[in-house]
Amino acid sequence: MQTDQFMIGRFYLQGLLLSLTALYLTACQSLYGISQENPHISENDCANCHSAEPTLLLTARKGQVSSANKLYSPARLMKYDLNRLCIRCHKGGEGDHAVSLKPEINRHSLPLDKEGRINCATTCHDVHPGHKDSRGYLRQLARELCLSCHDK
Questions:
Q1: Are residues 39 and 113 in the same domain?
Q2: 3-state secondary structure the chain
Q3: Which of 37, 47, 90, 121 could be bridged to 82 by S-S, CB 3.0 to 4.6 A?
């Protein structure tokens, strides 16, 4: 038998989870200045790549509520493995660089996956606004990017 306190707590938690989801989606838009110019992300929709599942968000924050500007590692809320993320749409394997390799050098501290390996979605590319003028959403100019790990 459920008590009134239990029911109130349950409704409070459901409301909190819905609020956190809305906060998360709003944060994506405000933090990254999402606009219609980026074909990878629809306005107000970080959920193409990131999970907006309230329970996952609450779990990632260890149950703590915080400001939208202090989201806990959005990378931990990815819907897919980073190397599989791109091939969901880019099935032709258009890239010409191997992934899942551990680089010997990383001069510009490019982001690697949690095992220290190169991944398509974040090491060389960044689909978040700010890199929209670069070809292929590269993090840097192609030559500079290659020289981050390669001597020539």
A1: no
A2: CCCHHHHHHHHHHHHHHHHHHHHHHHHHHHHHCCCCCCCCCECCEHHHCECCCHHHHHHHCCCCCCCHHHCCCHHHHECCCHHHHHHCCCCCCCCCCCCCCCCCCCCCCCCCCCCCCCCHHHHHECCCCCCCCCHHHECCCHHHHHHCCCCC
A3: 121
